[in-house]
Amino acid sequence: MNVEIANRLMDYRKKAGLSQEELAAKLGVSRQAVSKWECAESSPDTDNLIALAKIYNVSLDELINGKTASKKNEGFNVHLKDGEDEVNITGLGVHLKDDEGNEVHIGSDGVEVIDKKEKKDFYFRKHKNRKLLVIEDIISSVTVLGVIIAYLLCGFLVKDGWRNYWVLFFLIPITPSIFPAIYYRKFTLFTYPVFAVGLYLTLGMFLNIWHPTWVIFLTIPAYYIVFHPIDRLISRKRIINDTVIDAHDYDEGE
Q1: CA 122 – CA 165 distance, rounded (Å)
Q2: Is the pLDDT assigned to residue 222 strictly greater than 70?
C-alpha cells in the first residue's frame, strides 16, 4: 500500500476521534495490524476496507483514491424486483417503457409512472429541499410580524383602524404561498380562495361595495378549472413533477 493511502487512513481515523486500539476493536483485528496499515507496511483486505468506509461514512473510492463524489452528480440508485427477477439501476435519469405503452420516468427529484391501461399518472417526489423550507419559514415569520406591526399602527393612528384593518391578517396565509407557487411553477399552490375572501371583505369594508363584488367567489372554482390543466402541462414538460404526490386521470392526447 502506498504512503498516500496510509496517511489517508490515519487522517480518517483521527477525524473520527478513534485511537488505533479502538479502531482495531471495531474491526476485530490487532492494534499492530492497524499500525502497519498506517505505516504503509501492509494493506487491509477487502472486508476491512469496506468496514473502514462504513466507520468513516465515506465511499470506497474516497477512502482509497481521496475522491469526493460531487453531490450535484451523485445520481441515485433504483432497485426493482418482480418475483425472482431483479434489476438495479444507477444514474441521473431513467426512462422505462413497456410494449403496452406504460412508462416510468425516474429523476433526482422523484418518480413519474404513467399507467396507460388505467389512464392515470402517479407522481412521487422527495421531501422539499431544506433551504426552501427555511426560506418559506422566514417569509411566514416576517409576514406575521409585519402584519401585527401594521395592524397595531393602523389601530392607533388611523380612524376606525381597529375595526377595518384586521383584513391585513389575510396576508399571513396568502404571502407565503406566493413563493412556492413561483418556484415550483404551480399556480394551484397559491391560496387563491383566501385571497378571494380577503379581497371581497376589503372592497366591502373600505369602499362599501358588497354588491356585486360577491361574484368574486365564483372565480374560485374558475381559477382551479383554468390553472389545474396548466399546472399539469408544465409538470409534464419537466419529466418529474416535484410538487404533487397524488394520482389523477391521464389523457392520451396530452
Answers
A1: 44
A2: yes
Tens-place pLDDT, residues 8-61:
899 899 988 899 999 988 888 899 989 888 888 888 888 888 888 889 888 877
Q: CA 13 to CA 15: how far, in whole Å?
A: 5
Helices (H), 57-109: 60-65
Burial state string for 130-152 with b = 16 or more CB within 10 A and e = fewer than 16: eeeeeebeebbeebeeebeeebe
3 state DSSP class of 7: helix
Instruction: From the options 1.10.760.10, 1.10.490.160, 3.20.20.80, 1.10.260.40, give the CATH code of 3-65.
Output: 1.10.260.40
Q: pTM score, two decimals?
A: 0.46
C-alpha cell belonging to residue 31: 492494534
Nearest-CA neighbor of 21 among 11, 30, 12?
Answer: 30
Each domain of the chain, given as residue ranges in start order, spans: 3-65, 71-125, 130-243
